[in-house]
Design brief:
The complex is a heterodimer of chains A (about 110) and B (about 110). In chain A, about 0% of the residues lie in helices and about 50% in strands. Chain A is mainly beta and about 110 residues long. The model of chain B has no long low-confidence stretch (mean pLDDT about 90). Classes of the chains: A mainly beta (about 110), B mainly beta (about 110).
C-alpha cells in the first residue's frame, strides 16, 4: 500500500542532543513537508521541499534542519538549538503544489526531551 | 500573509445534534480550502476540499462545507453527529505560497 512512514513513533532525547526523525513516502510525490503540532496551536510548518535537493524554511524553521537527497525521503533533524522541542511532528507529502489534492500525512512522531 | 481562524476550541454535543464548525481565512487571492480530521490516536485524514465550482462541497462521513467568498469563510457542517465523530478538526488553506496553512483546530466531543 502507498503511504508515508514516520519513525520512530515515540522518541526521547536528552537536552543538548540532536535527533533525526525519519519520513519516507512511496507515493511518488514530488513535495514533502514537516509540521509541528502543539496543543491549541494547530499545525505549524517547519520546512518543505518541492523537489529533490531543494528545500525552503517554513514559519518555525529555527533549530531544525532537513535534507532531500532522495525523492522518497525527507528527514528532519531537531538540533540542540531548538528551545522547546517537545512536540508531535507530522510529515506530509503531495503532488507538485498540492493545491488540488491536498496532502497525505504520516502517523507522526512524538518527541519528548528529558 | 495567509492565516486561518477557527473560532471554537472545544465543542461538546450530544449524539444526533447538528454541528457547525467555523473557519475564516485571510487571503485576497484564489484559495483552495480543506478540512482535515484527526481521530484519537490516528493520523490526519482529508474530510473534504474546495478548489472551484459549487461552493457547497460534500465530504466523507456525511460532512459538508460551504465556501462563502464574501465572508472568507468555509464552515464545516453535519446534520446529525455520532459518537464516532469525536475528533479534532482542522481547517486549512492553500493560497499563493502553495503551502498548507492550518487553523488551530477544534476539538469535538460527542456524548452518547
Amino acid at each position: 500500500d502507498g503511504g508515508i512512514t514516520q519513525s520512530p513513533k515515540y522518541l526521547f532525547r536528552k537536552e543538548g542532543q540532536n535527533v533525526t526523525l525519519s519520513c519516507e513516502q512511496n507515493l511518488n510525490h514530488d513535495a514533502m513537508y514537516w509540521y509541528r503540532q502543539d496543543p491549541g496551536q494547530g499545525l505549524r510548518l517547519i520546512y518543505y521541499s518541492q523537489i529533490v535537493n531543494d528545500f525552503q524554511k517554513g514559519d518555525i524553521a529555527e533549530g531544525y534542519s532537513v535534507s532531500r537527497e532522495k525523492k522518497e525521503s525527507f528527514p528532519l533533524t531537531v538540533t540542540s538549538a531548538q528551545k522547546n522541542p517537545t512536540a508531535f511532528y507530522l510529515c506530509a507529502s503531495s503532488i507538485a503544489g498540492g493545491q488540488t489534492y491536498g496532502y497525505t500525512f504520516g502517523s507522526g512522531t512524538r518527541l519528548t526531551v528529558v | 500573509a495567509q492565516s486561518v481562524s477557527q473560532h471554537n476550541h472545544h465543542v461538546i454535543l450530544s449524539e444526533a445534534a447538528s454541528l457547525e464548525l467555523g473557519c475564516n481565512y485571510s487571503y485576497g487571492g484564489t484559495v483552495n480550502l480543506f478540512w482535515y480530521v484527526q481521530y484519537p490516536g490516528q493520523h490526519l485524514q482529508l474530510l473534504l476540499k474546495y478548489f472551484s465550482g459549487d461552493p457547497l462541497v460534500k465530504g466523507i462521513k456525511g460532512f459538508e462545507a460551504e465556501f462563502i467568498k464574501s465572508k472568507f469563510s468555509f464552515n464545516l457542517r453535519k446534520p446529525s453527529v455520532q459518537w464516532s465523530d469525536t475528533a479534532e478538526y482542522f481547517c486549512a488553506v492553500i493560497g499563493g505560497a502553495n503551502n498548507l496553512f492550518f487553523g488551530t483546530g477544534t476539538r469535538l466531543t460527542v456524548i452518547p
